[in-house]
Design brief:
Elements: E1 3-6, E2 18-20, E3 24-28, E4 36-40, E5 46-52, E6 58-64, H1 72-87, E7 96-101, E8 110-115, E9 118-123, H2 126-129, H3 132-143, E10 147-152, E11 165-171, E12 177-181, E13 184-188, H4 203-210, E14 217-221, H5 227-234, E15 239-244, H6 247-260, E16 266-269, H7 272-281, E17 286-291, H8 303-319, E18 321-331, H9 338-352, E19 356-363, E20 381-387
Parallel strand pairs: 1-4, 9-10, 14-15, 14-17, 15-16, 17-18
Antiparallel strand pairs: 1-3, 2-6, 4-5, 5-6, 7-8, 8-9, 10-11, 12-13, 18-20, 19-20
Helix pairs in contact: 1-3, 4-5, 7-8, 8-9
Bound molecules: S-adenosyl-L-homocysteine.
S-adenosyl-L-homocysteine is lined by residues 194, 199, 202, 222-224, 227-228, 244-246, 249, 271-273, 292-294.
Length: 391
C-alpha cells in the first residue's frame, strides 16, 4: 500500500489523528488523492491507515491504527457503533440527533444527522466524498430510511478542494419536515435550512436556558428559527423578542411559533449589531439576553476581529441588563477558546461597569462527542452570567 513517512515530533505521536503537510518526511508508492494510505514513522514502523489528500493542509487523517480498507463493512461497523453510543445517552432522542460526528466517531469528514425517518449526510473530506455511495449503502442497511439527503454545502469543503453539492441520494424528499422538540413544533428544511436543518448541538440548552425565563423579559439574539425564544415563551416569559438577519430563518421561526401556539413572540429580521445599538439608544431593558452568534472566525488569523465583534455585542447586552439580569452567551468557534472567550466577557464587564457571577456553563450536546486528542472537536462553550445586584 502507498503511504507516507511522518517526521519525528509530529502531532500524531502526541495523540492527534492528523498529519499536516509540514510533518511529512516523504511519501512512497505514489498515492492518489482520496486513497487510503498507510502511515509510517521514521523507523518504518506502521502507524495505521489514513485518508490522503495532498491538496489539503491536513494531508492525512488516520481512521484506524491497523491496516484497514475503506469498504462497506467498515462503514456499517463504524456507523453502528456510533448509533449504539447515541442510544446509550440519556436525554438524547436517537431519532433526532447527530448519529455520526466525523473524527469523534472514527469517520473523518463524515457527518450523519437523523431527523426521524430521514437521514442527512455530509462528506467534508475528499476521501469520504469519493465514497458517498458506499456510506449511503451502509446507512440504508442500518436504518432503512425514507430518504437520504446529501447536504454538501459546507464552506469547510473548500479546504479539501471540494465544491458544493446538495441532492437526494435515495428515497423521497419531504418538502418540510415537522418535528416536535420538547413540545414545540419545528419546521425543518433538510435541503436548504442552516446546518442540516436544525442546530442539534443546542437542543438540550434550549430547555436549560428556558428554566430561567418565567416572567422575565427575554431578548434572543441570533435566534435562527427561534429555538431559545420559543422555549422561553413556553416557559412563561413575560415578553420575548427573537432577532435574526436571515429572512428564511425568521419565516421558519414565525411558522414554528404559530404551530406551537406561541404567538406572543415578536420576531425581528435585522442585523444584531444594529438592533442592539438601537435598543441601547432607546434605553430598553431586559432580564435575559441570549447571544448565540455564528462563528465569527474560521481561522486563527481573524481572531482579533472576531473578538472585537464579540465584545461589541456583549458590551451592549450587559448595558441593557438589569441588576440580577442574566446574560446567556455562546461561542461556537473552535478558535475562540474558553479562556479567551471569558477574557472578552470580562473586558466587556469592565467597560460596562458590571460585576458578573458565573451561574452555569453549557457545552455542545453529547451527540457531538469530544475527542480529547483532537481539540478541534470541542467547539461550543456557553455561560450564564448574572449581573450582580447592588455592587
Ligand atoms: N440560536 C440558534 C442558532 C444560531 S446560529 C439556535 O439555537 O437555533 C447563528 C444565527 O445567526 C443564524 O441563524 C444566522 O442567520 C444569524 N446571523 C448571522 N449573522 C447575523 C447578524 N449579524 N445579525 C443577526 N443574525 C445573524
Amino acid at each position: 500500500m502507498a503511504g507516507i513517512v511522518v517526521k519525528p515530533r509530529a502531532r500524531i505521536f502526541h495523540g492527534h489523528e492528523w498529519v499536516y503537510a509540514s510533518e511529512i518526511k516523504k511519501s512512497f508508492g505514489n498515492p492518489a488523492p482520496g486513497d487510503v494510505i498507510s502511515l509510517k514513522d521514521f523507523k518504518d514502523r506502521p502507524l495505521g491507515s489514513a485518508i490522503y489528500n495532498p491538496a489539503s493542509q491536513i494531508v492525512a487523517r488516520r481512521f484506524s491504527r491497523r491496516k484497514q480498507p475503506l469498504d462497506k463493512a467498515f462503514f456499517t461497523r463504524r456507523i453502528e457503533r456510533a448509533l449504539i453510543h447515541r442510544q446509550g445517552l440519556s436525554q438524547i432522542n436517537p431519532e433526532l440527533c447527530r448519529i455520526v460526528w466525523s473524527e469523534s466517531d472514527g469517520l473523518p469528514g463524515v457527518v450523519i444527522d437523523r431527523y426521524g425517518e430521514y437521514l442527512v449526510l455530509q462528506t467534508l473530506t475528499l476521501g469520504m466524498n469519493q465514497r458517498v455511495d458506499m456510506i449511503s449503502a451502509a446507512m440504508s442497511e442500518l436504518f432503512s430510511p425514507k430518504g437520504i439527503i446529501l447536504r454538501n454545502d459546507s464552506p469547510m469543503r473548500a479546504a479539501e478542494g471540494l465544491g458544493p453539492e446538495t441532492r437526494l441520494i435515495c428515497g423521497e424528499l419531504p418538502s418540510k419536515k415537522i418535528l416536535d422538540v420538547n413540545g414545540i413544533s419545528f419546521t425543518i428544511d433538510l435541503m436548504g435550512g442552516q446546518k442540516t436543518g436544525l442546530y442539534l448541538d443546542q437542543l438540550s440548552n434550549y430547555r436549560r436556558v428556558a428554566e430561567y425565563a418565567r416572567e422575565r423579559r427575554v431578548l434572543d439574539c441570533f435566534t435562527n428559527q427561534g429555538g431559545f425564544a420559543l422555549h422561553c415563551a413556553a416557559a412563561g416569559a413575560s415578553t420575548v423578542i427573537g432577532v435574526d438577519s436571515s429572512s428564511p430563518a425568521i419565516e421558519s421561526a414565525k411558522l414554528n411559533a404559530e404551530k406551537s401556539g406561541l404567538n406572543s413572540v415578536q420576531w425581528v429580521e435585522a442585523n444584531v449589531f444594529d438592533d442592539l445599538k438601537t435598543r441601547e439608544a432607546n434605553n430598553e431593558q431586559f432580564d435575559i439576553i441570549i447571544l448565540d452568534p455564528p462563528s465569527f472566525t474560521r481561522n486563527k488569523r481573524s481572531l482579533k476581529d472576531a473578538l472585537r465583534g464579540y465584545k461589541e455585542i456583549h458590551l451592549r447586552a450587559l448595558k441593557m441588563l438589569n441588576p440580577g439580569g442574566l446574560l446567556m452567551t455562546f461561542t461556537c468557534s473552535h478558535h475562540v477558546s474558553r479562556k479567551v472567550f471569558i477574557e472578552m466577557v470580562r473586558d466587556a464587564a469592565v467597560d460596562s461597569k458590571r460585576t458578573l457571577r458565573q451561574k452555569q456553563t453549557f457545552a455542545q450536546r453529547a451527540d457531538h462527542p469530544i475527542n480529547p486528542s483532537i481539540p478541534e472537536t470541542e467547539y461550543l462553550h456557553g455561560f450564564v452570567f448574572e449581573i450582580m445586584p447592588a455592587w
